[in-house]
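User: Working on a comparison across species. This one is Putative phosphoglucomutase from Talaromyces islandicus. Can you predict its structure so I can line it up against the others?
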Amino acid sequence: MGNAPPRCTRLALRASYSSGVALSFSIPLHEFLHVVLIHSPMVATAFASTTSSNTLPNHIVSSCVRQPLQVAASREREMDSISREFGNWFEENKISGLDGYGNRADYVAESDLRKYWSSQRIRTIWSKEVTKQLPIPVDSIKQDYLRIFSTLVYIARQGRPSLVYLKDFNKRNIHDNNVLPHFEQGLSPIFPRTPEGINVSETFKKTYFRFNPVVFGSGLHRKELNPHCILPMTFKEKLSGDSVVIKKYEPHAAAGIEASEKVIVVKEYPQYELDRNFENEANAYISLRNTAGGVVSKYFLKYHGSFIQNQRGYILLEYANEGSLLDFFRQKRPPYTREEVHNLWRNLFELLLGLSILHDHDPTITTKQLRGVHQDLKPANIFVFREKNKEGYEYKFKIGDFGLTSFEFFDKNSNKSPDNKGGTMYSPPELTHCHEDTRYISDGITEEADMWSFACVLFECAVWSICGEEGRDEFWELRCQEISKHPSHVNQGYGASFHDGFQRITAVDHMLDVILERRRVFDNFTKRICMILLDQVLVPRTKTRSRAKELYPLLNDALNAPRSLENSPIERLPDCSSFPPPVRALEHPASQVDPDGIELYFTSDADKVHKSLRNRFSKLLGGEPKSLVDLVTDRGKKVGEDICHMELSLSTILEKVKRNLSSRKTSIYILTDAMWDDPMESYSSKCCGVDNPIRSLVEEMRKKNIMRTHVSLQFIRFGDNEVSKRRLKYLDDDLGKELQFDIVDCRNHSSSVWNMLLGGVIAAIDAIDDDSMQNNNIRSRSATLQELG
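Assistant: Here's the predicted structure for Putative phosphoglucomutase from Talaromyces islandicus:
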């Protein structure tokens, strides 16, 4: 087979520093090669082994191999193990936030770092990597260098003792609170400009953000953040916006926001908005805070900071859990009890205190004062909150969106700010121009502009509180129709404004008449409130408007004024001096039919029956007998809450009728203004559910084969409210046709008593329309007078 080639063995040697020099040799079996590699500051010695032995002779090992190599390698392994241990802890405790590009970025909170880095752990890790004593006191590391220290440990690798650079951070006074500005210079004073130093520097800069999430608050004001800065929050949803985008986020504990605020809003501005709207809004919140301190959060959205990152501006604000006032109008039902209406106005009037802070005008101060003008007050910029611990119709309102707000220093001779061209619908007459070509010419703006806008919002709220969203739409159409007569005004975008450029339009006064006609019987607020708004604020441009601090007590006095008798539904009934009330007129003929007397129910207490004591038992009971008129009059003196849930009341009464259908015939007379309130219905609904108990009664009568004339319902109407007429007309005409079983008739309170008595039974009388008949009588009398004349 011939002689085999000499067998060789391979020896690999790697220097202990990161330069990583490796030598490899092929050595014949019968030879030893003694290799000496000089690599300062240590000497590495390698030997080849023979085929007869896998290890070197002991005397050679002991004489040639230097112990420092083993110690250094052991220390590197320990440091690498510690770094891995810290890395594992990071993975177990990391939280996912967002960087400036919107990407997921992991971090650990500072509170967790402080728990991890005990004094003993800091000393232990330093002694294992760096043989010298700590150059910084442990307490100083925990207070000033904790994030830098964590980063250096995290990036340490075998052959890269990065923790040694901590002494250079300390030497140059670069600590956690001021390290970020040095990132732009590459941290050259710390890390050498060698390939190894540059590598460590870049790794440090990328990693440091994992231990330094952004903390929100007023201290974060218009700061420019590195794109790699991590925001401790989670994206939830986009709320609105095209150029300025509004998004909802869930802040983490590391953000520094109160735990009660589960979500916040972030307004995201494009680069071209940074110098105007972004700067205006961020500065407005700081100016308000400087003016009034923490109290501003009662009237304005809480400000959680602002910053610029990746060429976009961000403002962090309190989240309104009920949206804007515009959303409130569109989605919520109007208040339907006296207490709810009172609460709505009371909470809205609180915003005048906020406007007083914003305008901050004190005529007694002669030096310059910093005052603001919002310039864009409208329902979309007023925000609504529902507090969890509050029940009922309790909402809190706050002002927001200061993108067009101006803050200027004024003295007693000057009080005008630049006109930042806010929205047009709620803007005052003095900001309009006679021609669209002059719309960019401005004489400035004062706080009176805000007062006009806010008064328009309050008036619109009055319309909504009575007429609902349909009424608000109706009011908008009325304004558009009137403004359409002024083409220049329309061309400038004022098509639905509250003025014609000089004074308020007549549509406002007309709508006041409408809502006063439609208001509920207990409503003694609206008229007084609206008259104050029209007389004190919505005045021609030549007159002075009331300031916020002047208007607040006026409106509150109107809200809390004692109730007048004119608002009591009983007091509104016709007086006996003009004509007999239906109660008095019906009492005598009805008593002849029913010797036991008429049963009287009040809708506020439908379970309780009241009887006239003018019967054969009155003498046995003793005392003066009481008529139904007396009972009604007494009840009127005790009127409290005037809300009328007619469906519930009528249902209670008709259930009693259903239980006794087989007995004698029954006639029910319902005296009402038909201004019923139902929490689920708007003012324009058919009849607020009053038809439901009637349908149920008809169904029961049909089951028992009882004649239609066995039960009759006679509604007797007071007042001429158009909504009331529509409701009663539906019950009188349409419901009977739907059921093909008509037991309902409706009469005006001035109608013939016999029509009231028989209209629900005799179809011919039921067919008579009181209103048409009254109009015909008026026309007849008018024609007769003309003939006589």
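For your comparison, note: The radius of gyration is 43 Å.

User: Helpful, thanks.
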